[in-house]
Design goal:
InterPro entries: ConA-like_dom_sf, GH43_C2, Glyco_hydro_43, Glyco_hydro_beta-prop_sf, Glycosyl_Hydrlase_43. Belongs to the glycosyl hydrolase 43 family. GO terms for molecular function: hydrolase activity, hydrolyzing O-glycosyl compounds. By secondary structure, the protein is mostly beta strands. The protein has two domains: 303 residues, Tachylectin-2, Chain A (5 Propeller); 212 residues, Jelly Rolls, CATH 2.60.120.200. It is 1% helix and 48% strand. The protein is built from one helix and 42 strands. Strands 4, 25, 28, 30, 31, 32, 33, 34 and 41 form a nine-stranded antiparallel β-sheet that branches. Strands 24, 26, 27, 29, 35, 36, 37, 38 and 42 form a nine-stranded antiparallel β-sheet that branches. Strand 35 and strand 36 form a beta hairpin. The radius of gyration is 23 Å and the shape is globular.
Length: 530
Amino acid sequence: MIRNPILPGFNPDPSILRVGTDYYIATSTFEWYPGVRLHHSTDLVHWRPLGGVITERRLLDLTGAGDSNGVWAPNLSYVDGEFHLLYAEVASFASGYWDPQNYLVTARDLAGPWSDPVMLHGRGFDPSLFHDEDGTTWMLSMVADWRPGRNRFAGIQIQQYDREVRRLVGTERTIFHGTTAGVTEAPHVYQKDGWYYLLTAEGGTSWTHQATMARSRSLFGPYEAHPDGPLLTSYGRPELELQKAGHGSLVSTPDGRWYLAHLTARPYTPLGRCVLGRETAIQAVQWPEGEWPRIEDGIPAVLVPVPGDAEPAEDLAEERDDFTAPVLGPEWSTLRRPATADWVDLTSRPSFLRIHGGQSPVGRSRPSLVARRVTSKQCELTAHLHFEPANYRQLAGVTAYYNTRNWHYAYVTADDEGQPVLEVMSCDNGRRVIHDACRVDLPSAGDITLRVTFDGPRLTFAYQLAGEARWVDLPADLDATILSDEYAATLVDGEPEGWGFTGAFVGLWVQDLGAEGVYADVDWTSYRHW
C-alpha cells in the first residue's frame, strides 16, 4: 500500500506528471529557495527529492518577498521532448490585491539548464498548460477581481499559448465560474473518451477545501459539474486523519489506471493547528470509459493500493549531513535568497558548511537561514557548530521557524563584556521574548552542539558542550503550534493582512546585524523523526 502523505511536511499544490515510466511532482515553495520543489518516482510509492528548479535570481528574484508570498502553485507538463514549467509569483495580500505574475520556463532535462523566463499574463494565479491532441497549447488560470463587492475568484480563463513564438495569442475566454462551493482555482484540463474534463480546487485551502470535476464536449465549455459533488474532500469529516483535501492533479499509469495527487494536512487536534503545513497525498481514481471519475467515498485515504509491484517505502529514521558535497543537498532550503557561495560556503573549510551572517529575523532581503522541512510531529534537528561571536550583534544557532513573525531560536552570542552566552528567544505573532531562565554563560567560544526537538505541540532546546557527553535541556517548554498555517493567518476588515501557506522548518540561522563579517561553521547535522 501507498501510505499518505507521500510528501510529508510543507509540500503543497502538487502538479503530477508522467513521462514514460517516470513520475514527477512539482510543489509550491513560496518565499523559499530553491523555488518549485521536484520529486521523482518510478512506482508512485518511493519518492526521491530532486531539489528545486528556481535556483538563481535569473529565474525569479524573491528579495523582499512577504511571508507566504512568492511561488504559488506551479504546473509541470511535457510536450515534444521538452518540460514546461509554469509558476506564479504572488506579491501581496493586502486590500483584495494579489499582484500576480505568471512565468514559463522550459528545459529538455529537469536538471536544466532552464530557459530564461517568459512573462505571461498577470490576471490571476494557479496557471497550467493543456497540450491538446491537435497540437495546440492552452494556458489556464483562475482570474482575480480586485473590485470591492465582486467575487475575487472570478472564474477560470483560457488562452492559447504559441510554443513557437513563446507568447499568448488570441482572446482570453472564461470557461467556468465554479460551483456554489466558491473560491474556484487551480484548473487542469484532461482529454478522455471524447470529453474535456476540468479539474479545479474550490472551497478555499482550509477545512472546506475540495477537488471539483466538470466536463464538456468542447474545450471552451459549457462545463457541467460532477453530479455527485466533489471528487474529493475532507469537509464535514473532522475525524479523518487527512484534512484540507483538495487542490490536485491527475496522472495515468502506463496500464491505464488513474491517480490524483492532492493537497492535504494533518492537524494536531481535530480541526486544530497544522504545524507540518500542507502536504501531498495521492488517491486511486476509478475512471471507466465515458463515465465520471470517482474516488472511493470521495474522501482521502491514508492507505492506497499500489499500482503494480512495488516494495514498501522505507522510512528513513535519521538523516545525517556531513557537508562533504560541493552544494547543499535537496533536503535543504534557503530563505528569500538562493544558496550562493557569497554566504553559503561549502569549500573554504572542507566538510563544513560555512554560513555568513545576514539580516535580523525580520529582514527580507539578506537573511541567512538554511533549513529543512519538519516532516513528523515527533522529530529533532541536532547541529554541531563552531562560532566565535565578538558582540551582541552576532548570533548563530538552531531555529524552529515558520515565518518572520513566528519562530523559536536557541543561539550563541556575546554579552556586553564580549563573553559568549547561550540564549533562547521566541517570536509569537511578532512579539519577541527572551527566555531568561535558559541563559547559559559558556566557558569559551567555539564548538557547541545544539538540538531542537518537536514532541507534538511541545518544543524544547538542549545543548552539549565540546568534550562533554552530557546533554543539558534548557528550561523552557515552548509552543510548537505557533509554527502553523492557522496561527499565522491574520485578517483586517475581512481581508487577509497575512496568511499561512507554508509549514514549520528546522534549521541553521546566523545573524550579522553590524555587517562585521561574522560567520558560523557547521560540522554536521542530524535530522531524526519517530
